[in-house]
Amino acid sequence: MKNETFEEKLEHSKALLEKLMNPEMTLEASVALYEEGLSTIKEAQQLIEEAKVKITVIEEAHQKVSE
């Protein structure tokens, strides 16, 4: 899962949520899916933070060139 794109991580999270909504899901399976979902969301958030840093660096470099 670590090599998934941001969009793939979102889709994966949605799929996990759909599974969690199954009323026949056992408690143990639900907890495992919940844990996986939190991990996937955390990874997606990290990708967002990395993108923000890249954008900041690009903007700063562009500002220096413009001066």
Written overview of the protein:
The chain is an all-alpha fold. The protein has one domain. Helix content is 82%, strand content 0%. It has two helices and no strands.
User: What portion of the residues fall into strands of 2 or more residues?
Assistant: under 5%
Question: How many domains, as an integer?
Answer: 1
Helix content: over 70%
Question: Secondary-structure element sequence?
Answer: HH
The stretches of 5 or more residues where confidence is low (pLDDT under 50) are none
Key traits:
2 helices, about 70 residues
Could you give the topology of this structure?
Layout: H1 6-20, H2 27-66
Helix pairs in contact: 1-2
Give a brief description:
With 67 residues, the protein is an all-alpha fold. It has one domain (6-66). It is built from two helices and no strands.
